[in-house]
Every structure is written in structure tokens, then in C-alpha cells.
Amino acid sequence: MVSYVGLLRASAALVTIAALTATAHAQGGTPAGPATQASDSAAAATDQPGEDIVVNGTYARSIDAAVETKRRAAYGVDSISSTDIGKFPTQNVAEALQLIPGVAITRPRGEGLYVSVRGLGPQFQNTLMNGRTIALNDLIENGGANGRQFRFEMLPAEFTSRIDVVKTPTADMSEGALGGNIDVTTFRALEVGNKTTLNLRGTYTTQTDKVRPNATLLTSAVTDDGTFGLLAGAQYWAKSVRNDRFMGFGWIADRYATTAAGGLPKGLYSPTRTRPTVETEDRERVSGMISAQWHPTAELETTLDVVATRLDVAYDEFGLDIYPDDGKGTYNPLGSSIVPGSVVADGDTITKATINDVRFMASREYSLNRHDLLTVGLKQRWNPERWHLSADVNWSAAHSYHPDYRAGTVRSRAIFIAPLSYDATGGYKVLPTLTTPVDATDPANYSLYTFNIAPKDSKDWDLYTRADVARDLDGFLSKLAAGGEYHRRRRDYFRRDFLVNPPAGTPLSVLGTGAYEQLPFDDFLKGVPGNTPRAFLVPVTSAYLDAFFTPAVENAPLSLADQRSSFTVTERIAGGYVRADYQFPVGAVAVSGNVGVRYVHTDQVASGTLIVPAKNQTDKNGKPIPDGTSIAQAASFPKTFNNWLPSFNLRADLTTKLVGRLAASRVLTRPNVTDVAPRITVSTDAATASGGNPQLVPFLATQFDGSLEWYFGPSGLLSGALFYKALDNYITQNNVDITIPGRGNVRLSTQINGGDAKVYGAEFAYSQVFSFLPKPLDGLGAQASYTHTSVQADYKAGDREIRDQLIGLSKNSFNLVGFYDMGPVSTRLSYVWRDRYLNGTGSTVQAPSYVAAFGSLDGNFSIKVTPQLTLSLEGINLAGARQNTYNDKELRFGEVNYYGRTILFGARAEF
């Protein structure tokens, strides 16, 4: 085990290496050459000649750059510059974004992954890199698939120059966001100059007591005349993770209402499957980037951007699944039943009970999850006199997969059947009491259960091209612009399940003593009270693979279920826009803005395999198939959308320090590809089916925004904004009639358009450097933001009414930052908090689930010991907060998650 002493030794080694490197280069290096300032309008305030590749300025300068970007923009935008990202304890881009007003993130196992804006979840954001759409890596760790959520862990923060979150779009911006357009800009050589930086860090996680190395090298070179520049970067990043997790999979009504199950009155809720478990990850990311710029004249510029990332996540989970709701089956012939006299209820919640014939399942899940991302973009700009012409093309590919079937979500299991007594009266913040008279650590009590391998392979390709032309004008119209865009996306998703069913009652001992071990952790959720199993037996993955994954199993043909699980969705999107910028005075007030309209045509084809009953059909050998036999049938469902998306932005310079804005627009988000995939199973004896809905149309919203911004001094900003979004075509769960080839009309239980929702709220932001204080206190500063979001909604999950709630929407969120930045010393402390939010809508009989309020305290300290060398120490979740969930009542426990603290320490050399 690595101790804190070991951590200090590792830190000293990193500092020594960086210091020697910087000293050697300082003795033999050459001075930096000139750099050229970028011309992009949104970045004009932040791109400065000679800006460092990674953070090398004061935090106050970074705040000032972000404030100026917001002040000068022709639309509503919040930004973070490279100084912000590099100097906060950010492992990736998502963790920097949470400091922007209205932005919240999800951080599973302590790693920032998905981003929400103004209460709308990750699928409602449109993430761009250097202004271009990008392919998406999908979830493959378990059985799920997410669709349109961008995984921000794929972008190294060290490669990032600036992030813009656009909340009031213009007609020329790519559509796709009901929440926000998130544009990540990477570094470019002509904006950097002749510089090289080496960043060496160690990442220490308290739960694993391990230090993993991180190294980032970026170098930029510019010709003497400043017309051509080349920038290259490489990164190796690693982190070990351990998350202690108690999982409650939900609360269900009427499980024990039948006589055989206990004969309880209807309307009572009881817990379903639970799992105390330890999740571990070894994460390794290798990334590279190349950027080339050619700027031979003031009018002409060519830019090439290439970014590649490979992320390997070796996931290993040790759990004990407990099934109080287990039904009758091969491995549990009786099924669970409640002891009526043991029941204690609080209203409609059974808080205490004893349940017979419960399945206890020792489980081990292992997978190696690989995510590859490659994006290549080329842009040409030509700005002769008052004309502005540009052409842009980008190709990106994302591949999420398991390198080998033997690493494709391998589930090894062993079970015993026994009584369970539970007590949930402590609520969701403590562990419930879960006890049984059978020893969960004794291998003699276990028998074998179904062995499963579920490999997944998700491929996403994105081709993006566009051309734009604009002309500057005099008078009321200051500019006219028009352009066109073509976008082609394809998602191929493959999954199969290898299943091996040992005979019921086969003793675990037949696999030998090497097939199991005791839980290798003796401190499971040690800070959380409660009497849940904290010691139990777990299978050994390699022994199960050797015993069950034989060549005959591996080479077996795809089952009907395997064929049904795979799908392909393609989208061909053609769009065009016109935009007019205007300006005029109203007395002493300068008014400017833009108005435009965007037209988008989408051709979507969702293809997959349906499971249908045979009727008058033969097999591949010509032999008749009995009518009613389930067979696989390929099917494709084309769908076309046409959407007009107008936009309007107005900016009024009320005084030299006060800016007012008004905006309105029509926006859309296309359905998740997993929701439109035709993964449909058709009933044999009825005109019904269940699965995806290829007939879904995009989410649409009309949104309005008004803000007032007071720029009261250098880096000083106090702003407030009101926003309103009226969503239509909101996707909800219901039944719809569709046509199935060979079957005609059937009733599909799926998701449909038709729900309406209104999201509205307010944002407030403040930032200031206290330069008016006497030295040395003039380096103090503060940032703060608060967002309140409300919703009006009425939709159904099955027969359950869901009112005034949307998944992922927190009513309140805020962040507070205090910092001191003066001379060689920089230190900051930040606290980010979000309110509870709906995590799952439930169903007719299952209660909704919520993620409880959560806050993270993060900090940073750095000191520049020489002009070339900076030492840093950063911390994430310093207070050791746990993340909890519960169902619709706090008595109904959900999850407890604890991933500990993360400490990052290192040295950055600049030369």
C-alpha cells in the first residue's frame, strides 16, 4: 500500500525531474518568437499574443478575459479560459464547466463525465470542438447505451484553450441544443508562439491509497515571419479508483399482495434488489494533438486540427446481490414470500419485514472498456476587404468496445437461498439492516448460477462540412451572412450475450478453491452506520472463464435476443441559414444584435432486427418453419424532419458599464439514437410489441432570455438573467400504433412524443478581484453564481403521473470561489453544490428515484519557484462528501456512494 510518505516521495521525484528539465533548457534555450492574435469574434477578448500553452498567468487575468468575452459577445455566452482550467483541480473539461452559471455535472466515481445546462440533461447539449460537431463515445460498461451524451473525460483539459457555453444561439450555429452549445477550443500555434511546456503530476486517491503518474508535453513553433505555426501535444494520464457503493434498485408496489406471496393489502411499497458492492477502476488515457496554422496574409488563413484519444477503463466489481422480490424460477423454485406478522409499515412503505426464500448472489463483474476518439478538421478563411468567406470540414470517429470477448462485461455468480430480515427505518443516509442466518462468507453455502458475458461494440462516425459567406455593411445593417451545412452521422451498435446455465444446485466447490475469494476490502463504507453485509464471498473471474467460456460457447451462433439487441441509425442533415447583424442608436444608448433563421432537413434511417412469429415461411434450407415460431426479421424505418429555427439577439449598451440583452429562438434536440432504434419484440398471440420507437421526432423548444450585466471594474462583473423554455414534442413513455413489416399495425409499448414542459428560472453571477485593498491583500478575489430553475410538466411513466419534474433538473445550484493570486503564489478554494434531482421516473408500480443534494469542496495551491518552474497541489472532494439517492420518500433508501478524495500534485516546467 502506498502511504502518505510514499506520496511525498513521489512528489519530490516529479519536482526534481521538472526542475532539471527546466534548468537545462533555460541554459541552452532560445527566446520565444512572435505570435499572431486570433480573429475569431468570440475569442477576441481572450486570445493574446504569446499566451502559454497551459496555465501561465494570474487567475485574475483569466477572469478578466472571460468577463471581456462575455461583454463583447453578440449573444449570451459564458466562458472559461485556459488559466481557469489549468489552475483549478480539474481532471477534465467537465469539472471546469461546473463553475459556469447554470451548468451542473455528473461525477460517477469521482470523474466528471456529463454536463447539464439550465436544468436540461446531457442529451440536450450540443458539444463542439473548435466549432465543429464531434463523434460520441457510448456507455459499454454494463448493458446500457446512452446515445447523444458527450463523454467529457475524452478531452484532456491541458489541450484546451477556451470553453464557451452559448445560451442564446444565433442562426449560424449548429442546431442540437435545448440547453447550451458547448464549444471547446484547443490550442493553436500562432496564438501561442515558440514555447514548450512539460507538466508532470501524480494523482493520488484516498480510497485506493495509490499514486498514478500523469505527464503532458506541448510544444509550439512559429516561423520568424509569424505566418506559419505548428503545435503538437501528447499526454499520458492514469488514475486508480475505488467507489464503495450500496445500491438499491428501487421500491415496488404490491409485490406481496397475492396469497402465495403473503397476502398483504394493495398499495404497499417494498424494496427490490439491493447490492453492497465495491467498484474499482484502473483508468489510463493516452492523447495526442497536432495543430497547424498558415496565415500568409492578413486576409488568408488555413487551420488544421487533429486530436486523438484512447481511454482504457479496467472495471472490476465485487458485490452481493440480494433479491427480496425474487420470483419463481429454475434457481429459486418457490420464489420469495413475506412473513405477514413481521411487517411494519409507515404509511404505504414497508419499513421492516422478514422475507423467506430470498436469493443472495455473490457476484463479480469485470470488463475492459476501451474508448477511442479521433477528430480531424480543416478550415479555410478568406477575408478580402469587407467580405468574409470560410469553408470547414471535419471527420471524427468514436469507438467504444471491449478488445476481447473475455473482457466484455464478464459476470461470474454463485447463490444461496435464505430468509432475509430488513429494517429501513433509518432512511436513505444510512445503510439499511439486511440480515440472514446463513453465512455469506462460507463457500459451502453457495451453488452455481448463470454465467454471462455481454460484449458491446459501439461505433459512431460524424462527417461535418459547411461553407459561409458574409459582408460588412454600413448603416442599420452592419453585416449580412449566409451559409450551408451538411452533417452525416452513423451509429452502429452491437451486443451479444453468452449465457451458460449450470444445473440448479450445483455446488460452487466443483470449480475448486481457486474459483472464489473473500471480499478483498475490510473497510466497506466504514464511515456509514448500518447493518448491511460488509464481508462476503466473491467469485474469481479467471476461474469462471476457464470453466464456462469454452470454444463451443464462444463460437455459438447469435441468438434471437442477440440479433434484436443490435442496431444502426444514420442521420443525413442538410441545413442553411441567413443572418443579419444590425446596429442603431436610441439616444445615448448603442443598440446592436442579430436576427436570422435556420432551416434544417433531416433524413433518419433506423435499422435493426425484429423478433416476429413465423407465418408461411421457410428456413435457409427451404424447410417450412412452423407458424408462430419466433424468427428474426431485418427492418428499416426511414423518417424525415423539416424544421425552421428563427433566432433573435439584442444588446443594448445602456452605459459604459451596463449592458442589457434580450434573446429569443427556436431550438431542437434530436431523439437519442437508442430510443429510435427498432429493438422491438412482437408478441406471438397479440398485436402488441415492446421496444424502441423509430417514429420519434425531435424535441423542440421556444426560448426567451433577458439579462443585465454590470461591469463595474477590472475583472468585476455582477449579472442577472431570466430564461424561459417552452418544450413541445417532449418524449414520454406510452403506447403508439406502428406498422411492422409482415404483421401490419401493432400496439408498441415505447416512448412517444406529446408531452409538454416549461422550464424557467434565473441566474446570477459575480466576480471581482479586490484590487482596491492595500498590498498584499489586493490579490484577493471572489467568484459566485446561483441558478434557480423551475418546471411545469405533466406526463406519464406507465400509469404514474409525473408533475413538474424533469430528469436531471435541480431547482437550485450554486458555486462559491475564493482566491488569492499575487506574485508567485496562487491559491483557491471552491465549493460547488446542486439540489436534488429526478433520476428515474419509475413506472406504474415502481417509485421514482432521486439523486440527493450534493456539494464538492475543491482546492488548489501553486507557487512559481523560478520563472520556468511552478509547483502545484490540488484536491477534489476535500470534505469527503458521499453521494446518495433515494426513492420518492426519504424512508425508501436508494444508493450510498463514496469515492473518497483525490489529490493531484506536480510540477510544470516552461521553456
Would you give an account of this structure?
The protein is mostly beta strands and about 900 residues long. The protein is about 10% helix and about 55% strand. It has 8 helices and 49 strands. The chain has a 22-stranded antiparallel barrel. A 5-stranded mixed beta sheet has the order 1-6-7-4-5. A hairpin with a 2-residue loop joins strand 39 (about 780-795) and strand 40 (about 800-805). The longest helix has 25 residues, at about 5-30. The model is unreliable at about 1-55 and about 85-90 (pLDDT under 50).
What's the structural blueprint in terms of helices and strands?
Layout: H1 4-28, H2 59-72, E1 77-81, H3 82-87, H4 93-97, E2 103-106, E3 114-117, E4 126-129, E5 132-133, E6 160-166, E7 181-186, E8 195-205, E9 210-222, E10 228-248, E11 251-253, E12 269-271, E13 274-294, E14 300-323, E15 337-338, E16 344-346, E17 349-382, E18 387-401, E19 410-423, E20 433-435, E21 447-448, E22 451-453, E23 456-472, E24 477-495, E25 498-500, E26 516-518, E27 537-539, H5 541-548, H6 551-554, H7 560-565, E28 567-586, E29 589-613, E30 617-618, E31 624-625, E32 630-653, E33 658-669, H8 673-676, E34 681-682, E35 688-690, E36 699-713, E37 716-740, E38 744-769, E39 780-797, E40 800-803, E41 812-822, E42 825-834, E43 837-840, E44 849-851, E45 854-866, E46 869-876, E47 883-887, E48 893-898, E49 902-910
Parallel strand pairs: 4-7, 35-38
Antiparallel strand pairs: 1-6, 2-3, 4-5, 6-7, 8-9, 8-49, 9-10, 10-13, 10-48, 11-12, 13-14, 14-17, 15-17, 16-17, 17-18, 17-19, 18-23, 19-20, 19-21, 19-22, 22-25, 23-24, 24-28, 26-27, 28-29, 29-32, 30-31, 32-33, 33-36, 34-35, 36-37, 37-38, 38-39, 39-40, 39-41, 41-42, 42-45, 43-44, 44-47, 45-46, ...
